[in-house]
């Protein structure tokens, strides 16, 4: 016999379980990704392919024209003063286990890092002209670092790289992206852009004795109708997830520590 919503008679009432409670962003994305991606791609204004053509994108041309200004700002920030991504984001797990992958956050999911933007004012001003910006990071891959094979969480975003400082042996500093019918091996070239869909498996190596610096952005995939609305809702939820809030708390703590550190 069933006793209302409490379950079988004589048993403790069942509590309503909040969806995604205690789940990491990876787990949530894994659960929802196939359905979200199908809807997003039905309304996408860009094709479903690993590497995307940036010709005709005014914001890409604008960033490329100013790459040297951004390079000059990032190289003034010592690599050892940029935190390792693994120290900022537990959700990145195994892919950020190598602490030689460092991330200098300028903006992420609506949270602007004013203290970091103050160290790169020209870059911050340029980023204000990028449509659909979700995150903006100076990404440093130190000599010898390897980022294992992985994939992103949603087709609602695209990933953009602008190479700012590349090792002289640039063929040995590269990314591989597994397209639907082709394996793309992509070394960076200073001042040149790359736009890709990071839901395709990819991995990165820096098999040189120099560090690599890029501007790494995540931008909203251009979509229409329901696909755009769904993408906006998903990214709104991500901004309030444990994934983003953990990074924000750690950056806040680091900034507070820096602000109270006595001058030498």
Throw out a few tags for this protein.
single chain; alpha+beta; four-stranded antiparallel β-sheet; seven-stranded antiparallel β-sheet; Jelly Rolls; globular; disordered N terminus; 264 residues; 11 strands
Describe the structure.
The chain contains 8 helices and 11 strands. By secondary structure, it is of the alpha+beta class. The strands form 2 sheets. The chain has a 7-stranded antiparallel sheet. Strands 5-10-7-8 form a 4-stranded antiparallel sheet, with no helix packed on it. The termini are far apart.
Name the helix and strand elements from N-terminus to C-terminus, one letter apiece.
Answer: HEHHHEEHHEEEEEEEEHH
Tally of DSSP β-strands = 11
The major beta sheet can be summarized as:
7 strands, antiparallel
Q: Choose one word for the global shape.
A: globular
Terminus-to-terminus distance: 75 Å
Assembly state of the chains shown: single chain
CATH topology call? Jelly Rolls
CATH-derived architecture: Sandwich
Number of helices: 8
Task: Show the helix and strand layout.
Blueprint lengths: L24 H18 L8 E2 L5 H8 L1 H9 L9 H4 L12 E8 L2 E2 L1 H4 L3 H7 L5 E9 L4 E5 L6 E9 L7 E6 L4 E5 L5 E4 L5 E5 L5 E9 L4 H15 L2 H19 L4
Antiparallel strand pairs: 1-9, 2-3, 2-4, 4-11, 5-10, 6-9, 6-11, 7-8, 7-10
């Amino acid at each position: 016999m069933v006793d209302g919503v409490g379950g079988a008679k004589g048993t403790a009432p069942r509590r309503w379980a909040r969806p995604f409670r205690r789940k990491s962003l990876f787990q949530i994305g894994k659960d929802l990704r196939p359905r979200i991606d199908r809807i997003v791609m039905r309304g996408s204004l860009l094709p479903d392919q690993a590497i995307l053509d940036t010709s005709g994108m005014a914001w890409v041309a604008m960033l490329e024209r100013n790459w040297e200004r951004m390079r000059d700002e990032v190289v003034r920030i010592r690599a050892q003063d940029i935190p390792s991504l693994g120290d900022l984001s537990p959700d990145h797990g195994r892919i950020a286990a190598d602490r030689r992958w460092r991330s200098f956050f300028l903006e992420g999911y609506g949270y602007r890092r004013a203290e970091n933007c103050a160290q790169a004012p020209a870059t911050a001003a340029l980023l204000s002209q990028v449509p659909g910006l979700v995150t903006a990071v100076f990404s440093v891959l130190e000599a010898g670092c390897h980022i294992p094979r992985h994939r992103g969480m949603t087709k609602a975003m695209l990933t953009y790289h602008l190479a700012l400082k590349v090792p002289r042996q640039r063929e040995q500093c590269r990314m591989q992206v597994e397209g639907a019918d082709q394996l793309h091996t992509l070394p960076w070239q200073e001042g040149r852009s790359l736009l890709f869909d990071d839901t395709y498996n990819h991995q990165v190596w820096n098999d040189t004795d120099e560090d690599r610096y890029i501007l790494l952005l995540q931008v909203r995939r251009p979509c229409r109708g329901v696909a755009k609305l769904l993408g906006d809702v998903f990214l709104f939820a991500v901004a309030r997830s444990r994934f983003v809030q953990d990074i924000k708390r750690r950056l806040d703590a680091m900034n507070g520590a820096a602000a109270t550190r006595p001058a030498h």
